Amino acid sequence: MLAGYIHSELTKIIIGGAIRVHKALGPGLLESAYEACLHHALVGDGLVVNRQVALPLEFEGVVVEAGYRIDLLVENKVIVELKAVKSLEPIHEAQILTYLRLSGLRVGLLMNFNTLRIRDGINRYAL
């Protein structure tokens, strides 16, 4: 149904879902709770969303299963990496950029739900 959506439309829907989740739950919960609720919200919005998608890496021609997992993969186009931390750090940005590079995808959202206003905890990345 949404295969024709462009990245900006998808990210708008995803951010809207995150706002709904944050308004209902507020800060202070575990990342896994926000992940489950955002997954539920986005599926309810009609999106195809996969949770905890394995992300292998390749090293010297060998595929290595190193335990990397994408929190949410929306419409096989947008990576959503969730956090529930005091503040986002450079390592979190490096993580989502690495996930984009390893997956070959172009757009990702890094969301920190441990903020008073969720909009202050959302960053969009594009390769």
Features:
globular, two-stranded antiparallel sheet, 7 strands, five-stranded mixed β-sheet, 127 residues, alpha+beta, single chain
Structure description:
It is a single chain. Helices cover 37% and strands 28% of the residues. It is an alpha+beta fold and 127 residues long. The protein has one domain (7-126). α1 packs across α2. The longest helix is centred in the N-terminal third of the chain and has 19 residues, at 7-25. The chain is globular, with a radius of gyration of 14 Å. The two termini are 25 Å apart. The mean pLDDT is 94.
Overall average residue pLDDT: 94
Sheet-strand content, in percent, reads 25-35%
What is the number of independent domains? Answer: 1
Number of separate strands: 7
**What overall geometry do the principal axes of the alpha carbons give?**
globular
Q: From the alpha-carbon coordinates, what is the Rg to the nearest angstrom? A: 14 Å
Proportion of residues in helical segments = 25-40%
Alpha-carbon distance between the two ends: 25 Å
Spatial arrangement of strands, main beta sheet: 1-4-5-6-7
Classification by helices and strands? alpha+beta
Unreliable residue stretches: none
Q: What is the count of helical runs?
A: 3
Q: What sequence of helices (H) and strands (E) makes up the elements?
A: HHEEEEEHEE
